[in-house]
Design goal:
Structural class: alpha+beta
Number of strands: 6
Number of helices: 2
Shape: rod-shaped
Helix content: 25-40%
Distance between the termini: 63 Å
């Protein structure tokens, strides 16, 4: 019996290996970019919550002519799980993340405030993501955990 090449259907082993190699190269390029994009999306939690703290502090100031020193004063409560720990001072914190330090400059006085957030969004131990917002609504990224890996 003789088989002709015209009747054979399918792919050769070489063709399949080339396709697998191309998929591997594309994955090697795409995965790090995806992880960086995912980490930047996680930073939106800090930005949104610090903006909410700013709004709560401004509302409190409008009513009492001074800024609140506690989250209970300004009636800001974070609900759900969190990647960040939020600070109004060294002693006033909220969140479930442990072992994080207070960002520099976090303080509340009767005429100004700076609230902060610290988180470890990429689960490394070398750097933490630190954000602050002040009474002028200046949002600052003190340490960018995404770019410092």
């Amino acid at each position: 019996m003789f088989f002709s090449k015209k009747n054979k259907k399918g792919f050769t082993l070489i063709e399949l290996m080339i396709v697998v190699a191309i998929i591997g190269i594309l994955a090697a390029i795409a995965v790090p970019n995806f992880l960086k994009f995912q980490s930047r999306a996680k930073q939106s939690e800090a930005k949104n919550n610090l903006s909410a703290i700013f709004t709560a502090e401004i509302s409190y100031f409008g009513e009492y002519n001074s800024f609140g020193t506690k989250f209970s004063d300004i009636r800001w409560v974070y609900e759900g799980s969190t990647r960040y720990e939020y600070f109004l001072s060294d002693s006033e914190t909220t969140g479930s993340v442990s072992g994080l330090s207070v960002p520099n400059g976090v303080a509340v006085t009767s005429y100004a405030f700076t609230a902060g957030a610290t988180g470890n969004i990429d689960n490394d131990t070398s750097y933490f993501d630190m954000w602050t917002i002040n009474d002028k609504k200046i949002l600052t990224n003190l340490t960018n955990d995404v770019n410092l890996d």
